[in-house]
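In response to reviewer comment 3 from the previous cycle, which asked for concrete evidence that the modeling workflow produces usable outputs, we include below a single protein chain processed end to end. The sequence was submitted unchanged, and the resulting structure tokens are shown without manual editing.
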Amino acid sequence: MDHDPLFEIEPAAAEIPPAPEPDPEPGDDMLQAALDDSAAREQALLARLRDAILASDPALPPDLVHGATLEELEANTALARAAVRRIRAALAVEAPAVPAGAPGRAAPVAASPWEKIRAGIARL
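The workflow returned the following structure tokens.
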């Protein structure tokens, strides 16, 4: 073999131009506008639903409740609620129980003045 065929590749004579994009049909603009309007309406509804969820449960952190679709919003809301439950459970375990209100009063015991004085001195 006198010459290697790999080195004999000739450069392309002319670049192939990209295929021209087809002209849009008259109804395409209307369809695209309807799709854009539908997408904007969906995003507005998702924002209203998110606001309603946050208003109904103020303990939910707003940065955890998000989503571009209804399914994502529902899934993230469920995760946020689970996180709040876990945090509340952890705090309940760590914090001691504190009774609400003032402590109960003991019923007065009928005693003579001398018995009351002796009881007071005994506490010292």
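The helical segments are 26-56, 70-94, 113-123. We consider this sufficient to address the reviewer's concern, and the full set will be provided in the supplementary archive.
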